[in-house]
Amino acid sequence: MSHGTHLPEEEPYLVHNLKEIIQILADLSKRKTMIRVSFNLGDDECLTTIIEVDEENHAVYLDIGLDEDFNNSLLLSPHVVFIRDDGVKIKWISDKLSVVNLTGGKAIKIALPAKIVRMQRRDFFRVPTPLLNPVLCQIPIPSEASSDADKTLELTIVDVSLGGVGVLATDPLHPALVEGASFDRCKISFPEIGMANLTLQIKNVIPLPMKSGTIKYRIGLEYIEPSRSNEGLIHKYTFNLERATLALAHSTDLATKK
After folding, report:
1. Considering only Cβ atoms within 10 Å of each terminal Cβ, which end of the chain, N or C, has fewer?
2. Residue 250, pLDDT score
3. Is 220 in the same domain as 146?
4. Residue 148: what pLDDT?
5. Integer Cα distance of 80 and 111 in angstroms
6. How much is the pTM?
């Protein structure tokens, strides 16, 4: 992915409605929320706040820094990414920045963005998968010697999110399962939803000592640029799983109060 584009996993969270975009930006302005500005292909960053959202002229005005050279570099950057990270993630991209004089002094002017990413952190909360009838993740391990010696690992999924899955592996850990390794043609059969074919990358490997003295490993796997159809399967399964978990918690709570 190049700087100045939206990530594939952000696509479902793009807001296109103009009134909603104005409301989101106006709220950031009202709260004086710090916005991280990334430019020069991500090599430079600074912080700013939104001064005003001008609905009539389809413009947004932001604070400008004191360093003229830095400001000039920002203005010349072809793609500038604005990000609010904490809490609800807000992100948009602008390609034309200019300096204008407002009543209170100079400010950066950008066009009102046509689309904005609005992503709540809960969208990446991990939801535990059922212990009965566990969901399996099939990971093909290619052999350097011969394709006939290729092996497929079947690992139990313990939790799932819109960003990836957590799986369990037993000791001894297969030598291919190391942080940073990626695997193509992985398969996850989501019950009553369908089969997803994915590229997965290992983000972390955490040893879990058992009471028996043995060790298991929790492996965090991230989806790498899933197709829209696979994204749909992941979204539907995660939603159904989260809804079932909430329903179970609600029924348990009612039973406790009786």
Report:
1. C
2. 46
3. yes
4. 56
5. 12
6. 0.51
pLDDT at site 253: 45
Among 121, 150, 169, where does a domain finish? 121
Is 216 found in the same domain as 135? yes
**Going by C-beta distance under 8 Å and a sequence separation of 6 or more, which residues neighbour residue 233?**
190, 193, 194, 195, 196
Separation of alpha carbons 59 and 52, rounded Å? 8
Q: pLDDT tens digit string along 220-235? A: 999 998 998 998 899 8
- For 52-118, give the DSSP string: EEETTTTEEEE---S-HHHHHHHHH-S-EEEEE-SSSEEEEEES--EEEEETTEEEEEEEPPS-EEE
Distances (CA, A) of 72 to 69, 80, 81, 177, 254: 5, 13, 16, 46, 61
Whether the predicted pLDDT of 219 surpasses 50: yes
- pLDDT, tens digit (0-9, with 9 covering 90-100), for 157-206: 998 888 899 999 999 999 999 999 999 999 999 988 999 999 999 988 98
Closest to 116 measured CA to CA, from 81, 155, 147, 145: 81
CB 51 within 8 A of CB 62: yes
Q: Which residues are within 8 A (CB) of 27 and not within 5 positions of it... i.e. 6 or more apart?
A: none
The CATH number given to whatever domain includes residue 197 is 2.40.10.220
Closest alpha carbon to 171 in 123, 212, 228, 137: 212
Three-class secondary structure of residue 49 per DSSP? coil
The pLDDT of residue 115: 94
- 83, 163: one domain: no
Residues 102 and 188 in one domain: no
How far, CA to CA in Å, does 190 sit from each of 51, 161, 232? 47, 13, 11
* pLDDT at position 100: 92
In terms of residue numbers, what domain contains 19? Answer: 8-121
